[in-house]
Amino acid sequence: EDQKIHKDEL
Amino acid sequence: MNIFRLTGDLSHLAAIIILLLKIWKTRSCAGISGKSQLLFALVFTTRYLDLFTSFISLYNTSMKLIYVACSYATVYLIYMKFKATYDGNHDTFRVEFLVVPVGGLSFLVNHDFSPLEILWTFSIYLESVAILPQLFMISKTGEAETITTHYLFFLGLYRALYLINWIWRYYFEGFFDLIAVVAGVVQTILYCDFFYLYVTKVLKGKKLSLPA
């Protein structure tokens, strides 16, 4: 999940 | 989602729309660096490939699609529709000096050595310096139209608001992404000189022109 976290930003 | 992140996104959107409208209404892209706009199109393309692999929210997906579509529309207007007005002679920044080192760095310093992650990292690094051809063009011609300075202001404000967002997220969510933060700081610093001129000149009703 950590890898996905920054993808919530643009 | 906090208020800084949201206003950052909206500021980014405002910048993109201001630029599109400026070109569309004046039927001219004079004073705009096509190279910077090409780099931004590359930034969005390489960053938002996760549109195909993961869904975060309707907001996230729609904003990504809008950014990508607008950046391609801008490039189309500059290099196709209003090509005759494009100031290529003044848009002489060598983009390979940005793309090559940034490409190398994204291979060396990333969160995970996988294609999508390297491309995401590349886009973060590239975004931080993608405005340089535009700033170089302004320093070369010594001036910028007021509407172009509004575009630059919102574009710079967006990353500055993201910095506050990251401080907020660090304290309240324990979220910290070193790559994004360092690149975001670099990106914001590049605008500082411009912010100064914007506040001291443009906001006082004067045109942005640099001393010869």
Automatic annotation (TrEMBL), chain B:
Its main location: membrane. One of its GO terms (biological process) is vesicle-mediated transport. The chain crosses the membrane at residues 65-82, 119-139, 151-172, 178-199. One of its GO terms (cellular component) is Golgi membrane. Keywords: Cytoplasmic vesicle, Endoplasmic reticulum, ER-Golgi transport, Membrane, Protein transport, Receptor, Transmembrane, Transmembrane helix, Transport. It is a multi-pass membrane protein. GO terms for molecular function: ER retention sequence binding. The keyword RNA-binding does not apply. It is found in: Cytoplasmic vesicle, COPI-coated vesicle membrane; Endoplasmic reticulum membrane; Golgi apparatus membrane. It comes from the Eukaryota. PANTHER family: ER LUMEN PROTEIN RETAINING RECEPTOR. Belongs to the ERD2 family. This is ER lumen protein-retaining receptor.
